[in-house]
Amino acid sequence: MRSISIIAAAVAFWTIAAAPVAVVETAAAVAPADRMQETICRRDKETGSLVKSRKTCHTRAQWAYIDDTNQAFSRDLVDTTRTKPGGN
User: Fold this and answer.
1) Is 84 left (phi over 0), alpha (psi -120 to 50) or beta?
2) What is the DSSP string of 31-58?
3) For a Cys-Cys bond, which of 8, 14, 36, 47 suits 61, CB 3.0-4.6 Å?
4) C-alpha separations of 11 from 14, 17, 18 in Å
């Protein structure tokens, strides 16, 4: 009898836990016509914390601009701090 109540509780839990997933799937099914205007969310971990994170949402076009800018900054930083050969 006890195992039946545990199984019933587990089924009820998974039924409730699965309900928000169905809502997310239906929201994702209604995608914008232009893929560059689709909103993408990323989760970044806070420095010095194992659990704390920050969620940031932008469109695909904005993420492309942010990624390109960060990559250019990193490339410039490496190029300017590299030791130049042949110097006295």
Assistant:
1) beta
2) --SSGGG-EEEEEEEPTT-SS-EEEEEE
3) 36
4) 5, 10, 10
What is the model's pLDDT at position 76?
Answer: 93
> What is the number of domains present in the chain?
2
Number of other CB atoms surrounding residue 85 within 10 Å: 5
Domain that holds residue 7: 1-30
Per residue in 4-27, pLDDT tens? Answer: 555 555 545 444 444 443 334 445
Cα–Cα distances in angstroms (integers) from residue 61 to residues 19, 26, 30, 34, 58, in the given order: 31, 23, 19, 10, 8
Identity of the amino acid at 44: D
pTM across the whole model: 0.52
Each residue's pLDDT tens digit, 47-69: 998 899 999 999 999 999 999 99
